[in-house]
Amino acid sequence: MSLKRILLSGSEIPTAWYNFQADLPxxxxxxxxxxxxxxxxxxxLRPIFADELIAQEVTQERWVEIPDAVREVYxxxxxxxxxRATGLERELKTPxxxxxxxxxxxxxxxxxxxxxxAQAYYNKQQGVKRLTTETGAGxxxxxxxxxxxxxxxxxxxxMVKVSYEQKPYRRSMMQLWGATxxxxxxxxxxxxxxxxxxxxxxxGSLGMAISEAVEEAVQDEEAKYTLGSVLNxxxxxxxxxxxxxEKQMELAGDSPDVVIGCVxxxxxxxxxxxxxxxxRIAGKEIRFVAAEPRACPTMSRGEYRYDFGDTxxxxxxIKMYTLGHSFVPPGIHAGGLRYHGMAPSVSLGIxxxxxxxxxxxxxxxxxxxxxxxxxxxxxxxxxxxxxxxxAIIEAIKCRETGQEKCIxxxxxxxxxxxxxxxxxxxxxxxxxxxYPQQKIxxxxxxxxxxx
Amino acid sequence: MSLKRILLSGSEIPTAWYNFQADLPxxxxxxxxxxxxxxxxxxxLRPIFADELIAQEVTQERWVEIPDAVREVYxxxxxxxxxRATGLERELKTPxxxxxxxxxxxxxxxxxxxxxxAQAYYNKQQGVKRLTTETGAGxxxxxxxxxxxxxxxxxxxxMVKVSYEQKPYRRSMMQLWGATxxxxxxxxxxxxxxxxxxxxxxxGSLGMAISEAVEEAVQDEEAKYTLGSVLNxxxxxxxxxxxxxEKQMELAGDSPDVVIGCVxxxxxxxxxxxxxxxxRIAGKEIRFVAAEPRACPTMSRGEYRYDFGDTxxxxxxIKMYTLGHSFVPPGIHAGGLRYHGMAPSVSLGIxxxxxxxxxxxxxxxxxxxxxxxxxxxxxxxxxxxxxxxxAIIEAIKCRETGQEKCIxxxxxxxxxxxxxxxxxxxxxxxxxxxYPQQKIxxxxxxxxxxx
Lengths: 451, 451
Hints:
Two copies of one chain form a homodimer.
Chain A: E1 5-6, E2 16-18, H1 42-45, H2 51-58, E3 63-65, H3 68-74, E4 82-84, H4 86-92, E5 97-102, H5 113-125, E6 130-135, H6 139-151, E7 154-160, H7 161-166, H8 168-176, E8 180-184, H9 190-198, H10 206-219, E9 223-225, H11 232-251, E10 258-262, H12 267-281, E11 287-293, H13 298-301, E12 303-308, E13 317-322, H14 344-351, E14 356-360, H15 362-376, H16 382-401, E15 406-411, H17 419-426, H18 437-445
Parallel strand pairs in A: 5-15, 6-7, 6-9, 7-8, 10-11, 10-15, 11-14
Antiparallel strand pairs in A: 1-4, 2-3, 4-5, 12-13
């Protein structure tokens, strides 16, 4: 019997995170202050983030040691399995070998706790009492709630109001882990009150929720803010995914020719891809494919420009692929991929031609997820279905050319809290969305003219 | 860093199931024909079950080989982790060592696929084209749907109508795996039509759904019926849980003093307990604690009598602990524990004094689940929360007596599809139920008088 899953033992959880900045052929552009357009320093960030996370944001060290307390929590679900998708291979009649790194076994069900646990730990170490953050459908908020619960930190999550009301299950998950969850806009912050004064029925947005969470962290000396993607320290923490996968591919006696992931803010893809990207930079022939929705085609149709991380222009300016901070993507079910920007590190990878993008329709991704569930048994998150669809496209190419390539993708999360979306898909009432050209053009026209 | 999880490699999936019947100190009472009250033979069961499963139902062989094709599907999630509940131990300040066998990582989220996969395989081998079954909230139906999808069998699930309408997520799960799901009572069977003729608005029950699923299997030559608990062959398949746990406890250098599980029909508990029970029968001092809801106290308040497996008296008569087939338990959230009877093998274990029962309140179990989620990070199914509560009771006893006991329980499934129940618990609107004495007395009075 061939081995379906390649498992590592508990002692093989990585002891250090890998920092892609150390190997980038070009330095990352500085982050700019939103008021002065000048590069910001650590002091500007101290009211918002824990000191150690600020240091990790800019470090050029290749390896950053993982504290034992973080590895002990990782041990709840890590090392995660690397799985050979034999059922999918058979179904596709492809000569390709398809592997996926299964990040769905964490208690909240995705890769997000890889960084949530680290962020909670460093804040706890610094004596911070509570963490604030925003969440859309709840993947990030539930992961931070989980992490805070284990490190005995208070957790306050501003959840986009429409999700708070329509998707109560991840809210219950956060509350079970002891987090306080507020529908945003709320009357708890100045930002929220201002929005409600204008529109008491406002359904909220991720941009508004960021404003509320940052405001509370800045005004409360015992609190800090946390972000679940985009930033360098988040990509750093996610590198455990790729480091484990590297070891597991070796155990399988194989090596990936194509490394695939879905991309919203960039963290699950960076987590898998960056440890392999250093081999590409060192000369190894590996392709890197980042899959995004056509409804929110940041890499395929965005520009590499300085832009704000949030809709309300509160965050520093970062150089990244962006559709413009005022761009509002259509309501696809892969909520985690509905972001106007892209991690600056992933953006630079694209700019340098190291990573290629593919933009996919919602329905073809759900179809890929259905095929995956029927052949591999596991139900993917709608976000993850984009990675699966991209892997299937590569596997079909192999069938057509006869090439026996090795395809590796990140299975970033399960879809057990997304079954309502599958219900829509199965009943044939799921909408497709193509590139929203005019909206993108309008939003990019609003971008600040910098460097 | 001590090892949080004890993992086995893919090659360590058991190669044979363990059959408790081989080691029982007393033979199991025969199953009787519901018309004649005479012992039934294999021929009586052939229209309903696959031949190999009928053979496994009565075999006295100690070990039954697991087919490679079944082990290959098991490899999607097996071997499952054995986890040391260090967070829970710390919270309880107990000198006890608490371990749990984590069966929540199967794609449907529970132990049920351990038998669903085996049943689908033997039916496929026999040339059966489709399987029928009933399901309440959907745990069993989704597991059979998953298994049928991988063995390319049609699957038809009669789902209790009130669950079909109010709990659509597990229905979507089954449909995504390609199963046909019908609300029961339906107009597809004679049994369903008769019920609907009397009460067109009937919300359905598990008993009615069994009637429909059995009727369809009997009338369709290409179909067979499957059951997810109670029967001996189901307990046999579930023994992989305990066999793996046995090996993992050895690797941990430990040995359980108490083995705990929640009990509905008995299969998850038998799966963990039976492989350890053979050591008890051989003289080793181990306690066995089966946790049930006070709302449905089959072992604590039932009688050891011949009774029907279903409400509508269609099934053979089996000797078991029962509250009476007409007993309708209060609407607790642990739907999988709302069964009037008990696996005859587990029942005999209780009768012989090998297994002791504990009956728990719903709210104390949710409170235990909340503590577990906060300290171990994982959200339990409401059924599983009964095992956790029973383990906590034992751990607190150890704190009080200073005894350093080793407690092992089965974490039978996660609660990610049960967050609505947690929402009720967190909002304080969860009802408690004590022993329904009068209803039990009335139902037991209706039992047939046999041997």
